[in-house]
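Write out this protein's structure.
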Amino acid sequence: MRWALVKVCVAVTTMVVVAFAVPLGLVIKEMARDRAFSNAERQAAAVAPALSITTDRDQLERVVASAGSDDGMAVHIPAGEGTKAVDIGRQRAAAKDIAATRGLGRASTTEVPGGSTLLQPTALSSGEIAVVEVYVPESEVSNGVGTAWAVLAAVGVALVVGSVAVADRLGVRMVQPAQRLVESAHELGEGKLGARVPEEGPTELRLAAVAFNSMADQVVQLLANERELAADLSHRLRTPLTVLRLNTASLGDGPAAEQTRAAVAQLEREVDTIIRTAREAKPQTVALGVAGCDASEVVRERMDFWSALAEDEGRKVRVAGVDRPVRIPVARADLVAALDALLGNVFRHTPEGTAFAVDVHNSDDAVIVLVSDAGPGIADPDSAMARGRGSGSDGSTGLGLDIVRRLAESTGGDVRLGSSVLGGTEVRIWIQLDGRAPVRRGHRGTVRRRRRSVGAS
């Protein structure tokens, strides 16, 4: 917008300057010509009184010399009765032009090499017509024209430069509020909820700034209401959790009782975490690569937790790839939540006695966690992934797969459902280590070769 306004002003100012400067330059040139020939007429008029009195050559030469135009003035007296023609000074005009002027009886001009001549007829006492010739050089005709044109050009350039400066200032006045509006919109999109736009500039941009600030205030209010609602809903869970914790005290000793008490304690911690997060005034984000965990250690710890329940239900469990540390750019709590969601689905949607396995595969740019089972499988993986995007149906909330999907996509990875070598469902969590999009074809083949190498148990 700024440069467009400058271009428009340059074009308009240039047209105005040309429209006025060109005619004015022509007028100046014509005025200089008129001035030169007016001087020539005055010189010719100075000789006329002497011609009306005498035609003596010596006297006329003194008159021409006193006029100050020895080389630029000539007098042509025709021959009369008993007298010869007299020519004083240098003749530049053609004889026919002089004769034509004498015959017409009025002044005329004619072009000669180096300039022009003024031919002025003058009546003699004898009744004959003499012609006074005054030479006007071209330099005298154009005297001062070049300087005047240079001044006009300088004025025109100054007008154009001035219009550009004024247009630029006007453009800045209009563009800066628009740029601030764009920057604030980007900041708001990046989660900086305090971004606001100064309400200044042209009327339209002031109205846009008012509308943007009102929208930002509404967004902040909506997010605050949602946080309060999430905190309130989570807080309501504390009462039944307290009852469960008190009831676990009466379960006595044993693996099942310890697992129940551990599960209730973990649930209380998760609810407290949700409440604290919801009460935060600003959304908290963790930069990729700053927080992380050891995937092998988390898998071992969660499998120790679930293996006790698997033993009670007669399920065979296999864990592979956790014999050495595997660092991933994922918070430990997020990985724990994802694994618990998938393993909970195994226990919830497969009959007792169904085997399952967790494999961890590590490469230079990605870590793949495979959770597979020997259950009936998933008839429609696409529908299951759709439920995992928040549209729970068929008795499923879809939150489990949604937790897993968000964990993988936060690193630039993804989640895929398929058939496992155990005969049931396989969930592949692709965790990208460098934030780049996964190359699915090559890595997927690698994953399948590794999976066949470990076998089923």
